[in-house]
């Protein structure tokens, strides 16, 4: 899954869970049943999981282009700059 696919999965999850919560609340309120509300919400969570967890092809629309190993050898690795002067505290 690419970066845009992760963002899409996150947005889909939030939207689908919100819709499931609203539908479950309305259904539970109209039937005056907490059990109905929880079952509908659990179904919404299940559907959301089936849509957002697997790595579906529409989550891979923008694949990353990795650098070839032969190209990576041509570019120097960044070095960490170490300062030789240390601050000394005098008492």
Automatic annotation (TrEMBL):
Domain of life per record: Eukaryota
Query: Major place of localization?
Result: endoplasmic reticulum
Residue ranges for the region (Disordered) are 70-91
Membrane topology field: Multi-pass membrane protein
Q: Any transmembrane segments, and where?
A: 12-32, 38-59
- Tell me where in or outside the cell this protein is found: Endoplasmic reticulum membrane
Give the matching InterPro entries. Answer: Spc1/SPCS1
The family database entries (Pfam families) matched by this protein are listed as: SPC12
The alphabetized UniProt keywords are:
Endoplasmic reticulum, Membrane, Transmembrane, Transmembrane helix
GO CC, alphabetical? signal peptidase complex
Give yes or no: UniProt keyword ATP-binding.
no
Q: Does the keyword Transmembrane apply?
A: yes
Q: Name one GO biological process term.
A: protein targeting to ER
Q: Which family does it belong to?
A: Belongs to the SPCS1 family.
Q: List the PANTHER family.
A: MICROSOMAL SIGNAL PEPTIDASE 12 KDA SUBUNIT (PTHR13202), SIGNAL PEPTIDASE COMPLEX SUBUNIT 1 (PTHR13202:SF0)
Please give the function described in this protein's UniProt entry: Component of the signal peptidase complex (SPC) which catalyzes the cleavage of N-terminal signal sequences from nascent proteins as they are translocated into the lumen of the endoplasmic reticulum. Dispensable for SPC enzymatic activity.
What is the protein name for this chain? Signal peptidase complex subunit 1
Q: Which organism is it from?
A: Brassica carinata (Ethiopian mustard)
